[in-house]
């Protein structure tokens, strides 16, 4: 009985396929499971209350966001990053024949500021090199005016939410000694100042609990 394959045809999935084609799949990057009703009500308002908008829990902390049209789904996808209860809500486009375990919600676009560069190094080429520390670089902006702290580069790149936030990096300016460049994250949601990861805060940090047990706890690193 287990050996014979059951043949499924397009006619078997006409109704469900129509819903999937206007869907996004998403996951809230948080230790605490989100409330389905709260997620639907909050994100519905944020996204302009699309008609017949629905949210379904589909397993493993993943939600299906069903929009009235593919245009609505595309508009929301292009507006990333999104947040729910001060945590990242990472979204991916539905893909045919892809199972839930094949989706990856580890990455989100993010604007990052690079502080500490001498003025002559405030260029798009420098921004691309710094942004490549994170991943692909979508854009680099050079603000025309600064603040009391000076001027910085704004870099739109991809953040891996499973890794600790990068505090900065050393750069070498021609033959001079290396200098420290500080990274600051725009619209950063809840994160842990002990381990540097998003999705939880200091008091709920598993790494801190393990370090306490091993008596190697460190001071907050962020």
Question: How would you describe the overall organization of this protein?
Answer:
Residues 18-99 form the DUF4283 domain. This is CCHC-type domain-containing protein. Residues 160-205 form the Zinc knuckle CX2CX4HX4C domain. InterPro entries: At4g02000-like (IPR040256), DUF4283 (IPR025558), Zn_knuckle_CX2CX4HX4C (IPR025836). The structure is a single chain. The protein has 222 residues and is α+β, with helices and mostly antiparallel strands. It has 3 domains: 10-93, Alpha-Beta Plaits; 107-188, Alpha-Beta Plaits, CATH 3.30.70; 191-221, no CATH class. The chain has 5 helices and 10 strands. Strands 2-3-1-5-4 form a 5-stranded antiparallel beta sheet. The protein has a 5-stranded antiparallel beta sheet with strand order 7-8-6-10-9, covered by helices on one side. β4 (82-84) and β5 (87-93) form a beta hairpin. The longest helix is centred in the first third of the chain and has 11 residues, at 36-46. The chain is globular and about 70 Å long. 20% of the residues are buried.
Write the layout of secondary structure elements.
Layout: H1 14-20, E1 23-28, H2 36-46, E2 54-59, E3 62-66, H3 70-78, E4 82-84, E5 87-93, E6 107-115, H4 124-131, E7 137-141, E8 152-160, E9 168-171, E10 179-185, H5 206-213
Antiparallel strand pairs: 1-3, 1-5, 2-3, 4-5, 6-8, 6-10, 7-8, 9-10
């Amino acid at each position: 009985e287990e050996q014979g394959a059951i043949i499924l045809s397009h006619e078997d999935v006409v109704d469900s396929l129509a819903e999937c084609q206007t869907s996004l799949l998403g996951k809230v990057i948080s230790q605490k499971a989100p409330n389905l009703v709260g997620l639907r009500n909050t994100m519905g308002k944020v996204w302009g209350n699309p008609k017949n908008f629905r949210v379904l829990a589909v397993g493993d902390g993943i939600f299906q966001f069903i929009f009235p049209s593919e245009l609505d789904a595309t508009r929301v996808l292009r507006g990333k990053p999104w947040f729910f209860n001060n945590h990242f809500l990472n979204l991916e486009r539905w893909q045919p024949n892809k199972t839930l375990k094949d989706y990856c919600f580890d990455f989100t676009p993010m604007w990052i500021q690079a502080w500490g560069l001498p003025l002559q190094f405030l260029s798009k080429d420098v921004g691309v090199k710094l942004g490549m520390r994170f991943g692909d670089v979508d854009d680099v902006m050079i603000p025309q005016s600064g603040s009391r702290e000076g001027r910085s580069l704004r870099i739109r790149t991809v953040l891996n939410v499973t890794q600790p936030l990068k505090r900065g990096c050393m750069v070498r300016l021609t033959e001079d000694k290396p200098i420290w460049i500080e990274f600051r994250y725009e619209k950063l949601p809840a994160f842990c100042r002990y381990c540097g990861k998003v999705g939880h805060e200091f008091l709920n940090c598993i790494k801190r609990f393990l370090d306490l047990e091993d008596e190697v706890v460190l001071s907050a690193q962020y």
